[in-house]
Amino acid sequence: MPRRRIHTACVPGSFTAEEAETAARMFKALGDPVRLRLFSAVASHEGGEACVCDISDVGVSQPTVSHHLKKLKEAGLLTSERRGTWVYYRVEPSALAAMGQLLSTATKAA
Amino acid sequence: MPRRRIHTACVPGSFTAEEAETAARMFKALGDPVRLRLFSAVASHEGGEACVCDISDVGVSQPTVSHHLKKLKEAGLLTSERRGTWVYYRVEPSALAAMGQLLSTATKAA
């Protein structure tokens, strides 16, 4: 049985190539259990922000925490602000919009 | 100024180590622009399912599409069913629950 022809616009889903690059970079950054838990820790911390001093007991050293927080920031998932001795990280809302767009489409489909 | 002591339960966010492993595997699978667009294509395709024949023009060869769809399945993001000549893929709802849990926490924080 021949397959019905589909519209080209539907084929790559709702992502442009550029949007896919940006979102993929974010997903890749979360593709590590430690980084995922750190992101979650920042997101769920009181006031929506946390510094290394707040999340130093995830099971890795403080320099490792700092390293991963920087990676999350580079991927566009977190923003940071230095206040006194500490750098405070918080979730970047536009990152959630990009990832949420995908999950929203997928939730409707599932 | 000394930092206020925080509750240990808050520290790693809302993920157990096992949940973090599972979700990180899913995020990692989506950490590639082509796979991300394929996942989105399956999710947004009519009826919530698609086969390789439906999504062969994302800009990569059909064997590459097949390869990536298998990777998405291995990560728990898609399920598959063979019907006649074609294997049909659809989004695995429990995958969305795991990823949605994180984004939901993060959305409240942002």
Automatic annotation (TrEMBL), chains A, B:
Name the InterPro entries on file. Answer: ArsR-like_HTH, HTH_ArsR_DNA-bd_dom, HTH_MetalResp_TranReg, WH-like_DNA-bd_sf, WH_DNA-bd_sf
The answer, when asked if Aminoacyl-tRNA synthetase is one of the entry's keywords, is no
- Start and end residues of each HTH arsR-type domain: 15-110
Does the keyword section mention Ribosomal protein? no
The family database entries (SUPFAM superfamilies) matched by this protein are listed as: Winged helix' DNA-binding domain (SSF46785)
Ordered alphabetically, the record's keywords are: DNA-binding, Transcription, Transcription regulation
Q: Name one GO molecular function term.
A: DNA binding
The record, for NCBIfam families, names: HTH_metalloreg
Q: What is this protein called?
A: Transcriptional regulator
Q: Which organism is it from?
A: Streptomyces capitiformicae
